[in-house]
Write a structure and sequence with these properties.
Blueprint (H helix, E strand, L loop, with lengths): L44 H16 L35 E8 L5 E7 L54
Antiparallel strand pairs: 1-2
Length: 169
């Protein structure tokens, strides 16, 4: 069963802090309507992660079609328009996702790559991956690299992890 909340309306106050019944009428005063798409993936436990992790990224990160009028200072008449561009020289392995590539401090970029599978979750997808960062990007060259904590506020070698001692010793 997939729980789905289509409409929120209470005839009486539920005593959860608002002090009145919940009635969301919306702009048309007919009530709010939620429309969505739900996909159900039927697979074996052993191979489910191989499909659902990659399908989830594909659906979540689907490209947008952007239409804009031509012209403007950056538009050169008579020049061929750029129909496709990739900042990567080659495709990343399927179990690696480019999570962040954004300007950071002066002259630097923050790059976050994530491995999409947990250890032991998939026979193929959970395997370690090695990526050559020096030749990965086509739009810029990497001249130096510093591995940081996930929050990008500390170099990785300066991170001090908490060590927990359980009461069982």
């Amino acid at each position: 069963a997939v729980p789905l909340q289509v409409h929120r309306r209470l005839l009486y106050d539920d005593n959860r802090g608002v002090g009145e019944p919940l009635v969301e009428l919306g702009a048309d005063k007919q009530g709010l309507v939620v429309r969505g798409r739900h996909l159900v993936l039927l697979d074996t436990v052993e191979s489910a992660a191989d499909r659902h992790r990659l399908l989830a990224q594909e659906l979540f990160m689907a490209p947008y079609a952007v239409l804009a009028p031509g012209g403007g200072p950056s538009y050169g008449r008579g020049q061929p328009s750029l129909r496709q561009f990739s900042g990567l020289r080659r495709e990343l392995p399927p179990n690696v996702h480019l999570l962040t590539l954004t300007p950071w401090e002066a002259g630097t970029l923050l790059l976050r790559l994530e491995h999409q599978f947990e250890r032991g979750e998939s026979a193929n997808g959970s395997q370690p991956v090695t990526i050559d960062l020096l030749n990965l990007f086509s739009a810029f060259a990497i001249t130096s690299l510093r591995e940081m904590s996930l929050g990008a506020d500390l170099p990785l070698d300066a991170v001090s992890r908490l060590v927990w001692t359980p009461t069982t010793g």
